[in-house]
Amino acid sequence: MKVWELDSGSKVQITTKDFEADFNVFFDSQFLGSPVEKWKEIEMHIYKGKGVACDSLSFVSGKLIWSKKAIDLLQPAIYGRAEVLPLQLEDFPVAAVNVTNIVDAINHEQSVEKTLSSGTFIGYESYAFHPERLQGEFIFKIPQQLSTKVFVTDAFKSLVESHRLKGFVFHEVFSSEHMNTPQQPAVSESTPQSGEYTYEEAMKIVEEGEWAVVSGDYKWQKNANGKIVLGDKLPDGSYAWSVPVYTPIPMLEMKWKLSSRSIQQ
Q: Which of 119, 77, 117, 83 is nearest to 99 (CA)?
């Protein structure tokens, strides 16, 4: 058995028309493994790319946007495991898919966690699952990462491929064939592990106050007053700092790297 993290490879990226009124209220505070408590037919728009000839559109990790075609064809996989929520996107019929199927399947002895020096959990260096707990499963979330990760099994992947749906990307995170390979136990070090982090993981690092995170020309860190600030790199290599009212959706999809904190003027 293999487990895959589900992603979108669409070059078309969409967002809500009204970020503060719609994303923060309907997406960011929900999609945590439970049915949504409130919803409306949210108006979306394309902010990057052209056309929407794709069945899985790029939005935000853990919040799936599929075409009506994909939803109709994948009903056997999502029935009773997710809810379909209507959206508006120009003339292209799409819907949000909120995965409500939570499976406590992590093998803690063989998984390797990423933690901060304080012991705060921020993700996994590598995943290991109990295959017997995933028998008959198609699509699911795990209790440890409800807001950012959606996982699928071979059965779901095969269904997508058999229907030749476009835009679905599968990142292999576990194979039962490798279960006997010794794993190093999780170690909390004085600094976070190097590598790339999701936005959620990066913000946990920044909240600790010792490190900053960077992606492209952007940098997050805590200032001397304990507030989290966003830096926009200037031509001379310094940063223009601000306390943003909200986080632009593109940043939620960026991968972030560890960096030392900058001295703010």
A: 83
Give me 182's structure tokens.
């010794």
Task: Judge whether 260 and 212 are in contact, CB under 8 Å.
Answer: yes
Please work out, in degrees rounded to the nearest 5, the angle formed at the alpha carbon of residue 209 by the alpha carbons of 207 and 211.
Answer: 105
- For every one of its 265 residues, what pLDDT tens digit does the chain have, with 9 covering 90 and above? 999 999 998 888 888 988 878 988 899 889 999 999 999 999 998 888 776 678 999 888 889 999 999 999 999 999 999 999 999 998 889 999 999 999 999 999 999 998 887 888 888 999 999 999 999 999 999 999 998 899 999 999 999 999 999 999 999 999 988 765 444 444 434 445 557 888 888 888 888 888 889 998 899 998 878 889 998 888 877 888 898 877 877 788 888 888 888 876 5
Predicted structure pTM score:
0.78
- Give exposure, 82-105, as e/b (b: 16+ Cβ within 10 Å): bbbbebebeebebbbbbbbbebeb
Between CA 24 and CA 242 the distance in angstroms is: 20
Provide the b/e sequence for 227-250 (b: ≥16 CB within 10 Å).
eebbbeeeeeeebebeeeeebebb
DSSP 127-157: --B-GGGGTT--EEB-GGGTTT--EEEHHHH
Burial category of 50 from C-beta neighbours within 10 Å (exposed 0-12, middle 13-18, buried 19 and up):
exposed
